[in-house]
Amino acid sequence: MRFPTALWAFSLALLTAAGARAQIQEGPPAWAYPVNPPNFQRTPDDGTIRHVPDSTAGFTLTQVRDLFAAPDWHPDDHPPMPEIVAKGRKPEVFACGVCHRADGPGGPENASLFGLSAEYIIQQTAEFKTGLRKNSAPRVATDLMIKLSKAVTDQELGEAAAYFASITPRSNIAVVEAEAVPKTQVRDLFLAPLDGTEKEPIGQRIIEIPENVEHFVSRDSRARFIAYVPVGSVQKGRTLAANSDPRVQCGTCHGADLNGTAIAPGLASRSPTYMFRQLYDFKSGARKGANSELMKPIVENLSIDDMIALVAFSASLKP
């Protein structure tokens, strides 16, 4: 007995939706929401002056950890930082340039801000403040943003948003399809490779690690990352993003090259780990706000594999 084509497609859609719901019920994947282990301890500062390539600056480990002083390794890369970006305002508002780095590239644990419009940055900060924007799993970075959003003034936020929006985005991620990846550990909310060369199957994961862990720890704004993704992910993501169904076609809102439009942020070359969390949070309902009504019907039938593929593709694009 042969099923009519329409019935077969409908049945397949139901199975896909059921599978996607089951994955959400299993909980957010640990690789996308890394949490420091219970016995985690930061490396003590031995007073050594740290350096990064192509910079004459030097900072101690204590200095690069200071939440009220953003290390500026490459001052010629950006306009002068506003006070709120460079130093914040004690005791409640941390320097934006500490977590997001001096000119906004961020890291897998938070958002890259360069290339986003000032209006979008202000809107998202407001959604943190009102509780509309949360995560599907507890995250220290989100808790800090919520705390900051409640204390920052409109003027401070406007200055920071205008500053980051003025900076031209650049690619700092190499997307590599692989069957096996370095074994990793959680190091202060991001994944870092273990010592040695031992590898393990990638499975249903993205493994995003700094090319040089110590440069990233030093908050070097030029730090680069390798994002290992399952084999075939980039092409699968390209196909999904170009889906003829307008409810799924990413370029409808985010632009044909995913570099953003007047109504939606650019997605190209942003951390795939971070972007996966956003899709998952929209799907789980943890992230609400102005864009959730548009995003929710798009992501609700996406599987984990689909979301991995989409962000692998978007991360591979040039901004």
Automatic annotation (TrEMBL):
PROSITE patterns, alphabetically?
Answer: CYTC
Q: Does the keyword Acetylation apply?
A: no
Q: Which SUPFAM superfamilies match?
A: Cytochrome c
Q: Where are the transmembrane segments?
A: none
| Signal peptide coordinates | 1-22
The keyword DNA-binding appears for this protein: no
InterPro entries found in the cross-reference section: Cyt_c-like_dom, Cyt_c-like_dom_sf, Cytochrome_c_Oxidase_Subunit
The family database entries (Pfam families) matched by this protein are listed as: Cytochrom_C (PF00034)
Keyword list, A-Z: Electron transport, Heme, Iron, Metal-binding, Signal, Transport
Ranges for domain Cytochrome c = 83-168, 232-318
Gene3D superfamilies on file: Cytochrome c-like domain
Q: What protein name applies here?
A: C-type cytochrome
